[in-house]
Amino acid sequence: MRALTWHGRRDVRVDTVPDPVIEQPDDVVVRITSSGLCGSDLHLYEVLTPFLSPGDILGHEPMGVVAEVGPGVTELSVGDRVVVPFNVSCGHCWMCDRGLQSQCETTQNREQGTGASLFGFSSLYGQVPGGQAEYLRVPFGNALPIRVPHGPPDDRFVFLSDVLPTAYQAVQYAATPTDGTLVVLGLGPIGDMCTRIAAHLGVRQVVGVDLVPERLSRVAARGTTTLDLSHGDADVLDAIASLTAGRGADAVIDAVGMEAHGSPVAAAAQRVVAALPSGLGRKAMETMGSDRTAALELAIGAVRRGGTVSLSGVYGGSATPMPLLTLFDKQVQMRMGQANVRHWMPELLPLLGDDDPLGVDGFATHRVPLEQAPKAYRMFQDKEDGAVKMLFTP
Q: How many angstroms separate the CA atoms of 177 and 305, rounded?
């Protein structure tokens, strides 16, 4: 089959690789019809390179049609249409029973000290082949894949793999009062969807912050107040203060993470670590890695005293500094973590009817053949051509 594989920093290629096969009785093999390109994929493309090996198959937002089932699969049949959550979770362990699929005890990576394995996301999370490919082996076929109806286009359902549950969890963790103000930092796919979900849930004032004009105008077109970060942090903080009687936002979602703009020293350090041989780079990141924290610092500055910061942007630095005095003094609550995809399905599936309140049918900005994926990665990394959300089709 053809699949997108990693070969080095900013070097991904579409290669011919062996087809996946049934390995366990409850495995299924899915023929991929659409697979998303996510900001988390860019972390692998640019920063987390010490944790990848040449030939690793990327991608964690796939959907498709079941092509083969193992002898122990009872909940799916060949021909069923499914979305595959990015968490590799068993569905029956202590963590899964409590809705914490991102911490699944069956697939936890204890040697790495990390949670559940993830599709297409490095040796930190199990080195499981991903879904930017023609086919994907999916374990736990009776519990993991989400069956969806045939008929509507893939765009209706593919975002259940990551974007929708990640954004929904971020909004729920923010716990913004309905009469309050929520600020969303970063208007890529997750941040954009956060603004839509918060508005749908009735939050009175939602404010989106970014510095890419196309992303600002896209969010503003749906009625969200926007602030242009290119004017500087101070102007953004002043604007938030003026919108909130000087107190700051009730909650702030950081949908940016480790590669924030405005962190030149940390950015340089990340490039140095990424360029090291894999063993040295991995050790450096595990012991003294630091993230670009400009977005996190802005979130802490923008939130009111007693407010909440919700982190959906990925952070991975083991030595990233935190302004604990400010957090303590402002009595800030923080919630974070990988989305527990399966946990949010009862709330999300009813939002995917034909009325489409979240605008999922038109959410993707680009649809690209898998063979053009390397170009798409470069375009998305450099935020060219209004790229917010890309879908690959084999």
A: 14
Closest residue by Cα to residue 104 from 112, 283, 114: 114
Q: What pTM does this model have?
A: 0.91
Query: How far is 177 from 56, CA to CA, in rounded Å?
Result: 43
Q: Can you tell me which residue has the tokens 């990848």? A: 52
* Number of neighbouring beta carbons within 10 Å of residue 326: 12
Pairing of strands 135-138, 181-185: unpaired
Residue 139: DSSP 8-state: S
User: Rounded CA gap, 226 and 240, in Å?
Assistant: 10
For the segment 314-335, what is each residue's pLDDT rounded down to a tens digit? 786 666 788 999 999 999 999 9
Kindly list the strands in the beta sheet with 205-210, ordered across the sheet, starting from the edge strand earlier in the chain: 225-228, 205-210, 181-185, 249-254, 303-311, 333-336
Do you know the residue count of the chain? 394
State the DSSP H helix or E strand holding residue 268, giving kind and residue range, or none if neither.
helix 264-275
Longest dimension (CA), the chain: 62
Quote the tokens at residue 171.
Answer: 């909004």
State how far the Cα of 231 lies from the Cα of 229, in Å rounded to an integer.
5
d(CA 267, CA 144): 36
